[in-house]
Specification:
Elements lengths: L1 E2 L8 E3 L8 E9 L4 E9 L6 E5 L3 E5 L2 E4 L6 E2 L9 E2 H4 L3 E3 L5 E10 L6 E7 L2 H7 L2 E4 L5 E5 L3 E6 L2
Parallel strand pairs: 2-7, 10-15
Antiparallel strand pairs: 1-11, 3-4, 3-9, 4-5, 5-8, 6-7, 10-11, 11-12, 12-13, 14-15
Length: about 160
């Protein structure tokens, strides 16, 4: 498992000899319906305001040093995809996590993902500063057979299936 927040500002590296990338990770595009990372939002350099995306399936490897892709051409212009189908990481951070009965689990502080396929594997939740200090933050593991979660801009619904 890897924390989504740890991906922010990682460099994007290419395998092409003599090719250097000036891209870094700006955000993540989340497919809330399928509970996975759909793409990575990239920024080029520090002064440019335009962003581009890297579809998750085009990533070769991710580690603490960076994200490795085969070719810089894998990074697409952002207009090529319909962004309304996805949420950016900032859209869901610090949102309430509730069940369908309205019971509050906590506030989303981070998302755990599988590096192999971009699937969301867990949520890190806060119940407040004092509770975080005394008990630590809660981690809800997402299993496709035991749990169901739906992410949107307003709230995250989480259900444990029996």
């Amino acid at each position: 498992m890897f924390r989504a927040s740890d991906l922010i500002d990682l460099p994007i590296l290419t395998l092409m000899k003599g090719s250097s990338s000036k891209y870094t990770v700006k955000s993540l595009l989340i497919d809330g319906f399928n509970n996975r990372i759909a793409a990575i939002v990239c920024k080029e350099g520090t002064l440019k305001k335009s962003a581009q995306i890297l579809p998750y399936e085009r990533i070769i490897s991710i580690d603490t040093n960076g994200i490795i892709i085969s070719d810089i051409k894998n990074i697409e212009k952002i207009a090529l995809r319909n962004l309304n189908d996805y949420l950016q990481l900032d859209d869901v951070m610090n949102k309430l996590v509730k069940n369908s009965n309205g019971d509050l689990y906590g506030i989303l502080t981070d998302i755990y993902i599988s590096l192999l396929n971009g699937k969301i594997t867990g949520y890190e939740l806060s119940e407040g500063y004092i509770d975080d200090f005394v008990n630590g933050r809660k981690i809800i593991n997402i299993s496709s057979t035991l749990n169901k979660a739906l992410i949107n801009k307003e709230i995250i619904m989480y259900e444990r299936l029996n």
